[in-house]
Amino acid sequence: MQTGIVGLPQVGKTTLFRILTRAHLEEKGGRGAMHIGVARVPEPRIDQLAALYKPRKVTYATVDYVDVGGIVRDRARDSAVLAPLREVDALAHVLRVFDDPAVPHPAGSVDPLRDAQSLDLELMLSDLEQIERRLERIEKDLKKKKDPATEHEHALLARCRASIEGEHPLREFEFTAEERKILTGFMFLSLRPMLYVLNLGDDEVDKLETAVERHGLQKLRGRPQSAVVPVCGRIEAELAELDDAAAAELLAAYGLKEPGLHRLIRATYDLLGLISFFTAGDPEVRAWTIRRGTPAVKAAGAIHTDIERNFIRAEVVRCEDLLAAGSWPVAREKGQVRLEGKDYLVQEGDVILFRHSG
Ligand SMILES: Nc1nc2c(ncn2[C@@H]2O[C@H](COP(=O)(O)OP(=O)(O)O)[C@@H](O)[C@H]2O)c(=O)[nH]1
Ligand SMILES: [Mg+2]
Description:
alpha/beta; Ubiquitin-like (UB roll); 3 domains; 12 strands; 41% helix; binds guanosine-5'-diphosphate; binds magnesium ion
């Protein structure tokens, strides 16, 4: 799954992409140049498990980002500009909150709420065009011949249209699994989960928690399938240049517990509906990525199809319990290791040992 980093030019997209994915890009600066990179999902529990098991290999979960380039104002609905956004599963909209006379703002002034709403509007208008075209077709078909599947699609698209006309992106709607299936083919843009990334000025680094209120962005918060994450892009870039000890010192000086990038990556992971479970042993400690609500037998399949096919049971312990117990046998003695069957819904932070035949 990929998350597209979008936004106006000069808002800090490439800066963020670079440090998120630790990619060393040659800045050619050309619009339309797409970069794809992998970010590791920071996970202290993996580090703690590794300290316990001293495995040969440690594998973290990852999130893929695509730097899709600048959305040019007033040209956004140009399908060539929006086309790359259809290829991604979620959007991270970088909003410029920092003010810096040295960096021109394409819209002439800093107004993150305007920028957020303007892109959301473009996404909705693009979807609306598609919906209306399709509805027209369907209505013609229905006049000739009524069939339940077409009527069903018509009702669904009419609901989508009403949502957009009420200025609600499709992501804010709850669809059934069956409805989602019908919608998949349209690749609607406003259906993509949305992360609003507030790129703040350096002087706000110690007041990240109140950024939303201070900049009047409450409207962006608390909406379905979206999240707001404040970061200070330039300070994050500085942190990325430092070794761990120096970075920790700088963070402490700013009164921060962790880099903003960590929160950004975790928010993306969460928005994509992903969770991690762990496997821990001698050769490898590893985080595995599954969708929230995945049963144990399917989670086994994330590791290997043979384990899924020959699944007998899952032995499950909460990661915190295992870490506190210090070893699997001790956790078992304490009654913290559960035996679970195929249908058990794997929880975030479970450590699992799959028993299988063959
Ligand atoms: N003052 C300030 N400048 C920034 C910040 N983030 C990026 N910039 C500058 O803004 C310009 C555009 O950044 P870039 O990441 O290339 O933006 P993009 O066009 O959205 O990819 C560059 O000169 C950056 O150094 C920030 O947080 N504060
Ligand atoms: Mg760029």
